[in-house]
Amino acid sequence: MKRSITLAILLLGVISAFGQVYDPVSWEITNTQKGDTVTLRFKATVEDGWHLYDTNLEEGGPISTSLNFEAETGFASVSNFAATSEPIAVFDPSFQMNLRYFGHEVTFTKTVVLTGTGEIPLKGYVEYMACNDETCTPPNEAEFNFIVTRGGDAAEASAHTTGTVANDASDHQSYWSIFFWAFLSGFAALLTPCVFPMIPMTVSFFTKQSQSKAAGIKNASIYGLFIVLIYVVLGSLVTLVFGADALNALSTNPWFNTFFFVLLVVFAISFLGAFEIVLPSKWVNKADQGADKGGVIGSFFMALTLALVSFSCTGPIVGTLLVQAASEGGIAPTIGMLGFGSALALPFALFAAFPGYLNSLPKSGGWLNSVKVVLGFLELALAFKFLSMADLVLDLHLLEREVYIAIWIAIFGALAFYLFGKLTLPHDSKLERLPVSRLLLGLLVMSFTIYMVPGLWGAPLKLISAFPPPLEYSESPEGVGYKPNLPAATYAMPSGEGETTSRLEQKMEVGPQGLSVFHDYEDALAYARQVNKPLFIDFTGKACVNCRQMEINVWSDPEVNRLMKNEYVIAALYVDYRKKLPEEEQYVSEVTGKKIRTEGNKWSDFQIRRFKRNSQPHYVLLDHDEKELVPSKAYEPDIKAYAAWLKNGLDGFQQQTAQSSPLFKMMGE
Q1: CA distances from residue 43 to 3, 107, 157, 332, 614 in whole angstroms, order as listed
Q2: Domain at 506, CATH number
Q3: Which domain holds residue 240?
């Protein structure tokens, strides 16, 4: 017997006179029970012009739609929380990643099996955020509370609450992008000394085995398909062993990233010529014996022989691809191996079908080993990206930005000297003269190395921004030689009140564009009073697209940056910061009726209570009495208008300061 219980969660009931606080998403939550299995359905209706994000987006991007149970007792999950329809996928230039979202209407489902006895509560909330082309709401929570019994029908909970507003790639990398880079890697593998010489050998085998040209094309096609199949099976095994969702979760695991770092370093050292990674000779011999059978079976064993014999060269490349794809999660390893296998199989199949084109291939020689060494240097550089991820997650500050860039300068500098013939490795042939192609590549690598040098002193290095740690994770977050602009005047704090200026300064952190920011309103206000400057409040979000646009395009303007850095004290309040508040600091909002669980919830509630808004970005300029100096501002891409707004706020503050001075009061008397 099925019984569907509907919980309608309407738009946020806190709407200001100007309609600035609202929620563009309404939810209808139902559950259906059959025996011990309960299926929860979460139907979201999204207003026109807005969109709701998919589940399991990459860290560093917008907030994913997620399901959270208050307590997971009495039941066990049997399916992931996922949408029943395909999302819209777009590349977002602000986050430099592919995002997935839904418009108009979408339904998410979650199935659990009951394991407890008696009444079992299914209580929790869906966390989500909605955005349009100009702004985003903070992460919202739609709560639900059902009571179910094992073997019975679902029963409606005694109370329901209304969802409230609460407010930055690897989201899964685009499968097309994974396929493309894996395809290029397959071609790179072809140019290694373990693979390239096998092309004429393989073609000779099929030429002798085929009685006609048509038979040769058929056998070559089957052979190519088997090469692709072998690598696809390898990628699928990785997904099956770890699990598609587990892979994505592991991508931010520090120990997982450390293991990948060690693995890639071993691969790189192998490519540089210290040793070769080879498979047991018995495997190769058995595969070779199977190839003698001919026909379809012979083609399969020929493909398997290629994979085994070339493993010392393809193994590190395949391993690197699997590491990268595994960190993306989902079926990325399978897609990656499909691309790699396709590129590897294509020349073998084509030359086997049309052997006459073999004469156009360059001859084998020392250049093959040079390709292998170059790949070794690239793998070594890539390895440090994984070590950096582990260091960032653990917050050890062992591999800060300057150290990371210095390592890359050393690696690519050594690669440039190698290409110029000034550095030789174990398996290199004697280089009598430097080929033009090698000279040009060496100059390119050397130019890239020189380009990275200013990064040691704080340059942004936009070409490689996705690899090193962020600017704030460095020994000199504001650049070498930076000296803080100390205030010329101070505000006398009453004796015994507040904290000293130096202690408050220790709570400052480096924010966007090198600005010093507080992440607590009270600390920022106290410091603003002490240094006699107005307070700039930035209601922002890690997942706020337009916040990043403002920081990159507007705050970088010299005049805007000067005003913000020298004339204001900045409080950057992240409304989507998920750090849990201590239990004793959690409360129920008087305005929204929502439980405030996280620091982000706290600042979102503060924004709604004080300023009747819940969208980001939202900028407010306050005096020391917490009064607005000028009307607040939202997204403003016009640099001149934004600078004028800052100047108006500063002028208003200076006028207030002058009027409150003893001299002004004496003149008034």
Answers
A1: 17, 4, 18, 29, 23
A2: 3.40.30.10
A3: 175-365
